[in-house]
TrEMBL record, chain A:
It is a multi-pass membrane protein. This is ABC transporter permease. The chain crosses the membrane at residues 21-43, 63-81, 93-110, 116-139, 148-166, 199-224, 245-264, 276-292, 299-320, 326-345. Keywords: Cell membrane, Membrane, Transmembrane, Transmembrane helix. InterPro entries: ABC_transp_permease (IPR001851). Its main location: membrane. The keyword Protein biosynthesis does not apply. It comes from the Bacteria. It is found in: Cell membrane. Pfam families: BPD_transp_2.
From TrEMBL, chain B:
Keywords: Cell membrane, Membrane, Transmembrane, Transmembrane helix. The keyword Membrane applies. The keyword Cell membrane applies. It holds the Pfam family BPD_transp_2. It is found in: Cell membrane. It is a multi-pass membrane protein. This is ABC transporter permease. InterPro entries: ABC_transp_permease. The chain crosses the membrane at residues 6-26, 33-54, 60-85, 92-111, 141-158, 188-206, 267-285.
């Protein structure tokens, strides 16, 4: 006996949502099995990973804080992935956004800058990320260089640039030789939305990005162009859509949003530049984008779900002595399950017995 | 041994894992499947080989464990892209994320452990030739194996019937299927071969190159191996050349860091990554689109009925 895949002509939304949920449950079962193999109780782990963060107000705020950068980056990536372009260097664009925006914060440090500072920092963050994202896009459109490899290589380069800056010229002279910049002035800090809360205005940016994307994808020619470029590149060319312009545009958008995430995180959450400013948000956002089925609302939900695994992972490390790598392994399993579920939605799987085909 | 000789020797050691991993990926890609999970399979190979080698105090068992780990990861990938016709790019990325996480779990108890160096094989007489003697005739077994593997992969692809089948499936899976060629079976084995090679490359890193385990120790080498395949235009001989160029770039930047030219170390650390981009760029400028790419590369195979 073997099985055959037949493309489905239509796949209802309910089924797509169900597939994501099913993928998530499967991933949990597999992760539980891995934890059991490690000689720990999967039930206790589930409690620490999922139930406790969801029942604690502090963790709920933390959930939003962690979901913010991932939602921003994943929304950007969804533009690329929809057009069948593979920007996997969002982590680098995030870093460069933080570097360029952070540069202004350090430049104006101690000068009592006005209210113009923050908007300008955010703008520089977006520009920095977009420019870094445009490098692989330009190399692709101008010379035909594979964007997957170049965008990834630039992640390492971006991290090394940040590393150089915070250990060298941007190091806090009074920082006891720690590789970190001075702490940003209050005028260069994204404030919490609620007084005394943890959730900063980056969450608002993420909300805006979601809304704008809903409109762009559903209501504009650009949204249609993306879909067509991704699904039927030949048809898109016949329709007169310039694929090079699309490539540059989606890389600028996704780079810009990753840069926005970077500067928001540095200014709203970390408060200074240091060698490591991300636990891999740029890569995890790929999982988030797929888990959210490249749909803006879906991505918003997915970013919260994946943020939960980060927070759960941190408390599991403290409470159950489960290594943090488990979180990353889980995210890998989750992405695999989502892709498999995707196939279930796109294809009808039929089991064929030998001799009796139809 | 002079410094110059020492540098040349380390270049060989740095190049070998790139060469092995890239050869495996080359075969996978020639069958029409793009597996972006090399980094994940490689790091799993490194973790599992080191864990097994320390546990059983045997390099051989370590190497076998590394190859099995790589092949097992590849089998998971094969299940997705062949069984479910899932998106290959996404599945490869997932494999890398999973590998980086899982290897951390497996390697955690072995952080801090060390392995003794693997004894080089001295070919009597020949290894006494100045400079090139030690370079070519006093290396560890893996180095010789990687060269032999290059030749074998080249012969297999270009001189055997089975290699021709594999290439034609990679070039056009629809036609190959219509001719009755076993698309799925060939691709399955090609993916598994790629995984075993990536695992072996990881084992080499952990057991010979560094001789310890640290999380994420592959440091992008899997991705560089992927770039090498493109750089080599999917030809094994050029993979060998490319791997040695990149190995040299890596080692020379390390020596340059030690020599302290006044250039920030981070600039030099960026050299292998920038060199990869530059190599891909030069190749594209010379040949236009990526030449030699198999026609069906990365396209999910769903047979017409």
């Amino acid at each position: 006996m073997r099985f055959e895949l037949t493309p489905r002509t239509n796949s209802p939304t309910v089924m797509r949502i169900f597939a994501s949920v099913a993928a998530f449950i499967t991933a949990f079962l597999i992760a539980g099995f891995v934890i059991w193999l490690m000689g720990r109780s999967p039930i206790a782990a589930f409690d620490v990973y999922v139930l406790q963060p969801l029942s604690d107000p502090w963790s709920l705020q933390e959930l939003l804080v962690k979901a913010t950068p991932m939602a921003l980056i994943a929304i950007g990536l969804s533009y690329c992935f929809r057009a069948n372009l593979w920007n996997i260097g969002a982590e680098g664009q995030y870093v460069i956004g933080a570097v360029l925006g952070g540069w202004l914060a350090l430049r104006t440090h101690g000068t009592d800058a006005g209210a113009w500072l923050l908007p300008l920092m955010v703008l520089l963050g977006i520009i920095g990320g977009a420019l870094w994202g445009l490098i692989p896009a330009f190399l692709k459109t101008r010379f035909g260089v594979n964007e997957i490899l170049t965008s990834l290589m630039l992640v390492y380069v971006a991290q090394l640039i940040l590393d150089y800056l915070v250990r060298g010229p941007w190091r806090d002279p009074k920082g006891f030789n720690f590789p970190q910049s001075v702490t940003f002035d209050p005028s260069a800090t994204l404030h919490p939305i609620l007084e005394g809360g943890r959730v900063h205005y980056g969450a608002v940016f993420a909300g805006i990005a979601v809304l704008v994307t809903v409109i762009v994808l559903g209501r504009t020619l650009f949204g249609y162009r993306l879909k067509l470029t991704g699904d039927a590149p030949r048809a898109a060319r016949f329709a007169g859509f310039n694929s090079k312009a699309t490539t540059l545009a989606v890389f600028a958008i996704s780079g810009g949003l990753a840069g926005l995430a970077g500067i928001s995180e540095v200014s709203g959450q970390i408060g200074q530049l240091q060698p490591s400013i991300s636990p891999g948000y740029g890569f995890t956002a790929i999982t988030v984008a797929f888990l959210g089925r490249l749909n803006p609302i879906g991505i918003l939900v997915a970013s919260l779900v994946v943020a939960l695994t980060f927070i759960g992972g941190e408390s599991a490390q403290i409470m159950l002595k489960l290594p943090l790598d488990l979180t990353q392994a889980f995210q890998g399993i989750l992405l695999l399950c989502v892709l498999a579920a995707d196939a279930m939605v796109s294809y009808r799987i039929r089991f064929v017995t030998r001799g009796g085909g139809r | 041994m002079t410094t110059f000789e020492a540098i040349l020797l380390t270049i060989v050691t740095a190049s070998t894992p790139l060469l092995i991993a890239a050869l495996g990926e080359l075969v996978t890609e020639r069958s029409g499947v793009l597996n972006l999970g090399v980094e994940g399979m490689m790091v799993m190979g490194a973790a599992c080989s080191f864990a097994a080698a320390v546990t059983f105090d045997s390099t051989l068992i370590g190497v076998v464990a590394g190859m099995l780990a790589g092949a097992l990861m590849a089998a998971l990938f094969a299940l997705l892209v062949l069984g479910f016709a899932a998106n290959q790019t996404g599945s490869g990325l997932a494999l890398t994320i999973l590998g980086l996480g899982l290897s951390g779990l497996i390697g955690a108890p072995f952080v801090g452990a060390r392995r003794d160096p693997v004894a080089p094989i001295d070919i009597p007489g020949l290894s006494d030739i100045p400079v090139i003697g030690r370079l070519f005739f006093e290396q560890d077994l893996f180095v010789y194996a990687s060269i032999v593997l290059t030749i074998l992969v080249g012969l297999y692809l270009m001189r055997t019937r089975s290699g021709l089948t594999l290439r034609s499936i990679g070039e056009n899976h629809t036609s190959a299927n219509a001719l009755g060629l076993p698309v799925w079976r060939v691709r399955f084995w090609a993916i598994l071969f790629g995984g075993a090679c990536a695992g072996l490359a990881g084992a080499y890193l952990a057991l010979v190159y560094t001789r310890f385990w640290s999380p994420g120790m592959t440091a992008g080498r899997g991705w560089i191996a992927l770039a090498l395949v493109v750089f080599a235009a999917w030809r094994p001989g050029w993979v060998l050349v490319g791997a040695y160029i990149f190995g040299a770039a890596t080692v020379l930047q390390l020596h340059a860091q030690a020599a302290q030219f006044g250039v920030p170390s981070q600039v030099l650390s960026a050299v292998p990554y920038l060199a990869t981009i530059l190599a891909l760029l030069l190749l594209s400028i010379r040949h236009g689109r990526a030449i030699g790419a198999p026609g069906s590369l990365g396209v999910p195979f769903v047979p017409d009925r």
